[in-house]
Amino acid sequence: MKTLELSLAQSPASIEADPPSGLRSWLLVLHRCNPALSWGGWVHVPLLLAALLLLPFDDRTVTGLNVWIKPIKFALAGIVFLWSLAWLLADLPGAAQRAVRWISRGVALSMVVEIVCIFIQAARGTTSHFNLGSAFDGMIFGVMGIFITLSTGLLLWALVLMLRYRPFGPAAYVWGMRLGLLLFLVGSAVGSSMVSRMGHTVGAPDGGPGLPVLGWSTRYGDLRAAHFLGLHALQVLPLAGWLLARWRPNLTRSAQTLAIFLFALLYAGAVGLLYWRAVSGLPLLALR
Fold this sequence. Notes:
disordered N terminus, 2 domains, two-stranded antiparallel sheet, 4 strands, mainly alpha, single chain, 9 helices
């Protein structure tokens, strides 16, 4: 099958005429394109399963939620992030793939370190982020900060590569990749805002009434909503570009580019609105 004969230099976008048929084929292609990010995602899988198994048997809570909810959320997010990034970076041409390998190894390592730290703190029954309660807690938070900073720097390098080397694919998809990664970095900056405040809730300590599972405050501002939306631009914008090119194949490159820029502008506006509401002390949904 053509899709299973991809080398590291080949791109998923170059096989649109013969896409992977089924999850197993997709994962095989993904692993051949970027083994570092593929393995990074797989490391999250057993941790996700362990947290799901422990959830019903542990009634401890952290900031109002079961202690294993956060590891579950971050493990799922890590899998989606690492595997989608692997797919997107594979669309860069061969001239960029040496740099891609370095970026991929660093990002994969950073995400594995983060999820392990989160899992350790969950097992201890305490918070992983913004926790300086003891020397050990401070060390965990510091290690996470170092590796997230490393990952952010590497993703900035990836954005430079995407602008320097045109990825494979139609114009809407290409600009969806570029703008999606740019907005991902904006979402990362919202995370830095949380660190500067040493918390994600604006107007009250972290914890208290929140949305089910997500935990976002329903009484005060919560920066996590803008952070979440910004980070997931990495998946939403390339997908929107791909769908646009697939559903409207007769659009010119200029029209595709304009359409995805307008969509990205609306998306960025939504991130900005959520951030403004949070810093103004307003919840995403006010529930009493």
